[in-house]
Write a structure and sequence with these properties.
single chain, alpha+beta, five-stranded antiparallel sheet, 27 helices
């Protein structure tokens, strides 16, 4: 083993340790890897940054935008509503339809996004059926992972493996190359979960789930005891509020008042202005205010600030639901905000939303909510501009939106453009199937059409792209090149040949699957695919057999991240809502991973031969 290879392996080990401990963000680790390779002279600048020009990185970014177009036009939510309607009160029917829908949608958009969208649907159904959410949450996450096996563009590992084939001068996979395996694994997964769900039956969360139904404004107002707290106050001439931003006024501290929205005259009509931290108040503005302390003297407040009470129709801003939104949110596991108060987080400044209620263990908390440390499992009721709620929904680093009230259907950003979004999706898939147009170009055309049809705007398109995922892929690509350049790939392949070379290609496939699954326990499935794809292809070439079964096994094994809650973001998302323990994933995931491996070893060689 030469010195350069030893350095590369040490750097790989350091990256795995950092990924595992979460001391640094994964995208930061990826950028540090690029810097280390260039400064050490292991790779040239062009070699280390080649990932930035990889067509598959562009394709993945474009698919994030396409998925956001389906969300903004309400297509995904309509699928969820249809699912609830058709399944009725049958748990078995719900499980089957849920897994089919999630696997189908995940084949064309981010599986993490699909699972996040369907979590409120599952919680709603569980509450209505009076069953534990855990009976359906793990099938949801498994379906999200299986969706990565449905099409070539379903998940980044597929595209990474395909890119490695092309880089080696081998023709890439077709759009539906992985579909036969995916369909078979999906059928197997549905059958498996119908049996395995019995192993998840317990009383954890059964009593709590009754609150997870998709409710209306009135339901949320009742459950969080908001009646009587809303006020509508006009700013009179000479008010000390004029010219000040909300952040400067400290109304929450001084008067226990949250400004939810602002009515303002603009071009001869009254419009609703978002109440952001930096929003400056003007004379004549009408403030929609939530006063959460019963001891506050409203008359004194109005007298001191020169405010005039106005008529407020409806109960607690329910009449303003087209402009003022509500949502129930919760922190995701391992969020950096756990244990911090809303004041510590700077919630309003950070998210442009107000927290008007917190429920813990089924009870509504009272007092100064801003000073209460947030615990895992707490449900926060946020109120504010619908756009800010959508942005919080897209931000998946700390919070997860659990429940949007029924009124959201009336304010979908581009709900009337749903047919256009479906047309763009169908056109993209058709172009990819023809093979005449490169996949990245087909996806970019779909993105431009979504913009032309106003299904998505530029701001939401850029925010839809999960940049840390792209940087992770770009940063891990140099590892594959460095291992090849320093002889690491040859060393690993020789080791595999010594172990399984004489036993035949099928045993080699099994070794690759196991190795890929084990590595996937410590780093992301995308990074695993980046590392394992060149090793698998080199092993096939060494044995003198077709590289396609070997590459496909890596793609399937990378998606089969069922064994732990940290193997994939999809599993982490359902950990809290499903009230699972680490051992639940081991108990259910390990046997299913073995089943997927057995199916792959039988079917993949039969489809592609050696």
């Amino acid at each position: 083993m030469n010195g350069e290879l030893l350095w590369v392996l040490m750097l790989l080990l350091a990256a795995i340790v950092l990924f595992t401990t979460n001391k640094l963000r994964m995208d930061v680790v990826a950028l540090l890897v690029i810097i280390a390779f260039v400064l050490s002279g292991t790779l040239t600048l062009q070699e280390a940054t080649t990932g930035f020009s990889d067509p598959n990185v562009i394709l993945i970014a474009a698919l994030f935008v396409v998925g956001e177009g389906l969300v903004r036009t309400g297509v995904v939510y309509q699928v969820g509503d249809w699912l609830v309607k058709v399944a009725g009160s049958s748990e078995t029917k719900m499980l089957v339809l849920l897994m089919l829908c999630v696997a189908g949608l995940g084949a064309i958009m981010s599986s993490t996004g699909v699972v996040a969208i369907f979590i409120p649907v599952v919680l709603s159904v569980a509450g209505r059926m009076k069953i534990s959410p855990g009976r359906l949450m793990m099938p949801l996450s498994f379906a999200g992972l299986i969706s990565g096996m449905m099409t070539l563009v379903a998940t980044p590992p597929n595209m990474v493996v395909n890119s490695e084939l092309v880089r080696e001068g081998i023709e890439g996979f077709g759009f539906f190359a992985v579909t036969p395996i995916g369909v078979l694994v999906l059928v197997l997964g549905v059958g498996y979960m119908l049996v395995a769900r019995r192993w998840l039956v317990d009383n954890r969360g059964i009593n709590a789930n009754v609150d997870w139904q998709r409710r209306t404004f009135r339901d949320l107002i009742r459950d969080y005891k908001l009646s009587g707290r809303a006020r509508r106050l006009a700013i009179r001439s000479g008010s000390p509020l004029i010219g000040c931003s909300l952040d400067e006024l400290h109304l929450r501290v001084r008067y226990s008042a949250n400004v939810i929205g602002i009515e303002r005259w603009r071009r001869f009509r009254r419009v609703m202005v978002s109440a952001f931290a930096n929003t400056e108040l003007r004379e004549g503005d009408v403030l929609l205010i939530d006063i959460f302390d019963d001891d506050i003297d409203l008359r004194q407040f109005c007298r001191e600030q020169l405010l005039e009470p106005m008529v407020l129709r409806g109960e607690y801003f329910s009449e303003q639901s087209r402009n003022v939104g509500m949502a129930e949110v919760s922190l995701i596991p391992n969020s950096a905000l756990l244990g911090k108060s809303l004041r510590d987080v700077g919630f309003r400044r950070r998210y442009d939303l107000n927290v008007v209620g917190i429920r813990r263990n089924g009870e509504t908390l009272k007092g100064q909510l801003a000073n209460i440390p947030i615990e895992l499992g707490d449900i926060l009721l946020v109120i504010g501009d619908w756009k800010a709620i959508r942005q919080l929904q897209a931000e998946n680093h700390d919070f997860m939106v659990l429940n949007l009230p029924a009124e959201v259907d009336e304010v979908a950003p581009a709900i009337n453009q749903a047919p256009h979004a479906l047309f763009c999706l169908a056109l993209m898939v058709a172009m990819m199937l023809t093979k005449e147009i490169p996949n990245p170009i087909a996806a970019l055309i779909a993105c431009l059409l979504l913009g032309a049809f106003r299904c998505i705007d530029m701001e939401s398109a850029y925010k839809a792209i999960h940049w840390p995922s792209l940087i992770l892929i770009v940063g891990m690509m140099p590892f594959a090149q460095a291992l090849q350049k320093t002889g690491g790939v040859d060393l690993i392949v020789r080791g595999l040949m010594d172990i399984a070379g004489d036993a035949g290609p099928r045993v080699m496939l099994a070794c690759l699957f196991v190795l890929c699954s084990v590595i996937g326990l410590f780093i992301s499935n995308t990074a695993t695919a980046v590392l394992m794809a060149p090793i698998a292809i080199a092993a096939a070439q060494k044995m003198g057999v077709s590289p396609y079964p070997f590459a496909l096994v890596i793609a399937i094994a990378a998606s089969a991240a069922f064994m732990t809650p940290v193997s994939s973001p999809v599993n982490t998302l359902v950990l809290g809502p499903g009230n699972y323990k680490f051992g639940d994933f081991v108990k259910i995931g390990v046997p299913f991973t073995v089943l997927v491996m057995m199916v792959s070893l039988i079917v993949i060689p039969w489809l592609y031969g050696f």
